[in-house]
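Researcher: Good morning. I'm working through a list of sequences from a screen, and I'd like to move beyond sequence-only analysis. For each chain I'm collecting a predicted structure so we can compare shapes side by side. This is the next one on the list. No need for commentary yet; just the structure.
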Amino acid sequence: MSSHPHRAVAESPGPGAGQNLESQAIGLPAVVAQSAALIAPAAGSVAGLAFIVGYSGAATPLAFLIGLLVCVCIALVIGEYAKRLPSAGSFYTYLTRTFGPKTGFVTGVLLFGAYMLLFPFQLDFFGNFVSTLLASSGVHISWVVFSAALIVLSTTLGVLGVKPSLRTGLIGLGIEMTILTIFALVIIVRGGASGNTLQVFNPSVSLKGYGGLLTAVVYTIFAFVGFESASTLGDEARNPRRTIPRAVLLTTLIVGIFYVIVSYAVAIGYGTTAAQVNGLATAATPFNTLADHYGNGVLSVFVNLAVISSFTALNIVTVIAVSRIFWKMGQDRLLPEVFGRVNRRQSPHVACLSAGGLALVASIGFGLKYTPLAFASWLSYFATLFFIAAYLLISGGLIRFVWRDYRSEFSWIRHVALPVISIAAMIWVLYGNVHPYPPAPLRWFIFATIGVIIVSIAIAFWIESRRPDAMLRAGRLLADMEIEEEAALARPGPRPSSGDAGRHSAGRDRGGRHGSGGSGG
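Model: Good morning. Structure tokens for this chain:
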């Protein structure tokens, strides 16, 4: 799901501060924990299941398992890059070094576009979740109230220069995953509705057949978004060439196994008959219902609090990350200069208010027209197509990158077979989403993704012919969402001078790679 610092907050320097990274400060367990926190597995499991079961039904655990295997392939590909470019980086870094700045620009557009789509998704899903939860207890309050309250909270904290605490965030991650794991184990131990079964891993039980299963896999990949964030911690990890590749893979495996266990528990908790699967697919609050049924009412309180906490923290860190990108673009005159201003607390108040306002207008406007859950579902699907496009580029790029720059280390297994398997897996998933032809509006998003890529390529050629330096800056800034999400987790570190403001790109080489002296924030 991406970005997740969790509950507590603490004041820290604003964007003008741009904290320096503490070199070799953290080991493998801390890198894995921080990366897992940025996925938001509690929010991902609940949101993912809400969308997935309508397509895969009882086979939802199989959909998560396939998604896990696809993401493991991508994680291994990213690991091969991280071994050779260990400094704090992102897909932009890797693809610019592989294909050049135009591909880096297109990647930046895809990544930034995906995160911007996730912004209103968070508000609509959260508002619908809380409103439906209260409605089940006889309290009826419009989802708009909760969506607005969430973005007002997050934007206010952003304007005040308040950032989530890393230590408390990691504690929160542990608590939330523990609660949902207990929830799952209680159901599994009690045998669910009709006993434990491996039938949920049979493709034939998918609610909408083979095509429905592969559509569901797109949503499972959405739940994994952020698994690659360990690659942005290269400047802080001990022995990064070894630690970062392992952390990306371990994060994927840990979160993926968690998703499979939780989805398995939900599937058997409702049961696998046609009537039971339809009950799950149409349930307004399936987690709450199961927690009440199997946990005697006590477990549901903790499960609901974990989900609400997870989404709240997810939105806070997204506001901070998006506003910092807007602020950087204002500094570089890629947006009006007013976006580059900071207030007395060194916070990008104009950028923060603008980001929050855009998200609120989109979420309420489209949510009221199409219902919040439907709109959130479409956004997550659309955003995931953007991520898959970036994953395809990174997988194809590995072959060229290692063959051209590290010929002596080239391996036909790790640098040809692995990326080919990764590409084949994603093409297989995409094929299942176009054959049979999907219903509207999902079909439109496939064409829209292709259109965005084509337009981005055209813009990249146009900018390069006139202002090549601007294209480099734009691509790097747009792709910096991954790095800004990490920066949104407040870490102890020296407070630099105010002169660092506006010089956030000085520490990088031509490929967008950070130097050891700065975070790029």
